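lol ok so funny story. i was supposed to be doing the assay writeup but got distracted and ended up predicting the structure for this chain instead. priorities right. anyway since i did it might as well share w the group, maybe its usefull for someone
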Amino acid sequence: MELETFFTVPEQTRLLFCAVFLGIPLGLCFDVLRVLRMLLPHGKLAVALEDTAFLLVWGGALLCFAGIFARGEMRAYYALGSTLGFLLYRCTIGTVMVRVLHRIFGVSGRVLRWLTTPLFHGVVRIYGVLKEKFGHFAKVSGKVHFFWHLPLIVIRKVLYNNKRKTVKR
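and the output, tada:
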């Protein structure tokens, strides 16, 4: 029994179609990121980091694809096939999915805001009470020089209480 080092044409065709189907979940992942960009304000750095993370996910997906389906052999047509699947998804289902995901995330954001508003107001009330009762401690402890005259340990001969900056040898 000899070990084959090449793929036959039917195997290559099957791998190409599998790579095309790999592009569909990647397109869905990209649409989720697009919807999050629409709902949450992003700066240029955050967008660049998201795009870099997406490309790393895409590369990881291609490596996993090659490891599972293709005996660990990476071929260029896997990347081309997944790109083709990504583009097919974006041109067909992706246009509808962006609107659907935008509505889902918008509704879930409003529900989450509605659920967390009482919690937020409760925290604000508790903070106000605590600040009213214990606010003077924050003023006193914020001034570090207030504690400089206090020794760290009661015995004055201990090294921690030594005021000298340098130690003579």
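The chain has a mean pLDDT of 81. Residues 92 and 147 are 68 Å apart (CA to CA).
back to the writeup now i swear
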